[in-house]
Specification:
- Its EC number is 1.-.-.-.
- This is Acyl-CoA dehydrogenase family protein.
- Keywords: FAD, Flavoprotein, Oxidoreductase.
- Its cofactor is FAD.
- By secondary structure, the chain is an alpha+beta fold.
- It folds into three domains: 100 residues, Butyryl-Coa Dehydrogenase, subunit A, domain 1; 120 residues, Beta Barrel (Butyryl-CoA Dehydrogenase, subunit A, domain 2); 141 residues, Butyryl-CoA Dehydrogenase, subunit A, domain 3 (Up-down Bundle), CATH 1.20.140.10.
- The chain is 50% helix and 16% strand.
- The protein is built from twelve helices and nine strands.
- Helix 1 packs parallel to helix 4 and helix 10 runs antiparallel to helix 11.
């Protein structure tokens, strides 16, 4: 593995950091999350027009840039630093790769260029226990079911015109605003149960979407209700959805790890800057040895998380798995950096209005959505064959 960035990768990182510094400061961030969509459409357009960010990891024949997941991971480290609210995760990391992997050629040609250009956003609506289970981040997903009858989920039935979906999915990332929904639904009844993916237009009849109150406002979530909504099957009848979701999970984990590492690094930078300015007992707080030791521990954790995320990106590009361990390490680093930031900012750091809480909420929110950390590590150990099946680590 060569850890040196190419000239193109370095340019992506530099340009994106400059753009986000100008367009996504604390004031702009708070204004964006308070809008109905939960993000700034003008910033999203700038990311698409100047950098081609939505299509960074899509093939050029579908309007993408043609880069690998490595470049997407590097870009997401920068968006993580700024906590930039955007449809990038839902559209380019979750939905677009599934359309590329499972869609028919007509579906790819019709949807991927629009997603790559940023004119169309998408969301993956996965009902059931949580998104982490469907993506096999915290356990095997061979028992995952998108429908649960009276217990919830989404059911699909054939109609003379195609398919109709009925049910509900909660906590869908950007589900309230996406122009296209990729909905996991249950077909075949209980005797021949099967999970499939369906394409649903954001303005389809019978579709009701509501933005939810989320712990982390920079990751807006929506509740999706479907009442006999017309839908199009993604791919053909032979498309195997669960293995595709599991294969996607490791790349998603690598992206999330980079985001968390970037956020942790920025939280640490802000804290170091503050303790160098805050004076107590006639000297800067940052000059006290105890404070130096605490920040040094966070620095080591952040650098280890960045290294793990970089390796996970390289591994994903080469068909290997390392995302889950990298995500677990990055989430721990972000939580430590955010917690120390709140503590070392003193009384002002404990107010909800302070920016330090944005990083703490990102850490807690990501662990709730994609964790917890110990289950990520347990799944990584199982995948690596460290324990025999059925054996419990003590």
């Amino acid at each position: 593995m060569d850890t040196r960035l190419t000239a193109e990768q370095d340019e992506i990182r530099r340009t994106l950091r400059e753009l986000l510094h100008r367009r996504c400061g604390p004031r702009e961030l708070r204004a964006a999350v308070d809008t109905p969509a939960g993000y700034d459409p003008l910033l999203w357009s700038a990311l698409a027009d100047r950098l081609g960010l939505p299509g960074l990891a899509l093939p050029d024949r579908y309007g993408g840039v043609g880069c690998s997941v490595t470049e997407l991971v590097l870009a997401c480290e920068e968006t993580g630093r700024a906590l930039a609210p955007s449809p990038l995760l839902a559209t380019s990391v979750l939905a677009a790769p599934l359309i590329l992997a499972l869609g028919t050629e007509d579906q790819r040609a019709g949807l991927l260029p629009r997603l790559a250009a940023g004119g169309l956003t998408a969301a993956l609506a996965v009902p059931g226990p949580d998104l982490a289970a469907a993506l096999a981040l915290t356990g095997r997903n061979d028992g995952y079911r998108a429908g649960g009858g009276r217990a919830g989920g989404v059911q699909a039935r054939r109609t003379p015109d195609g398919w109709a979906l009925y049910g509900q999915a909660d906590q869908v990332l950007d589900g309230h605003s996406a122009g296209l929904l990729l909905v996991a639904a249950h077909t075949g009844g209980f005797a021949r149960s099967r999970t499939r993916l369906f394409l649903v237009a954001g303005d389809a009849a019978g579709l009701v979407r509501t933005r939810q109150t989320a712990l982390d406002a920079t990751r807006p979530q929506g509740q999706v209700q479907l009442r006999d909504v017309p839908a199009e099957l993604l791919g053909d009848d032979d498309a195997d959805v669960l293995p595709a979701l599991a294969a996607l999970g490791d790349a998603v984990a690598a992206v999330l790890a980079a985001e968390a590492a970037g956020a942790a690094g920025r939280a640490l930078e802000r804290t170091v800057e503050y303790v160098g300015q805050r004076v107590q007992f006639g000297r800067p707080v940052g000059s006290f040895q105890a404070v130096k030791h605490r920040l040094a521990d966070v620095y080591v954790a952040v650098q280890a998380a960045r290294s793990a995320a970089c390796y996970a990106a390289w591994a994903a590009a080469h068909g290997e798995e390392a995302g889950r361990l990298a995500l677990a390490q990055a989430l721990e680093a972000l939580r430590a950096a955010a917690a120390e930031g709140i503590q070392l900012h003193g009384g002002i750091g404990f107010t909800w209005e302070h920016d330090a809480h944005l990083y703490f909420k990102r850490a807690a929110g990501d662990e709730l959505l994609f964790g917890p950390v110990h289950r990520l590590r347990d799944r990584a150990a199982e995948t690596a064959g460290l324990f025999a099946r059925g054996e419990v680590a003590v």
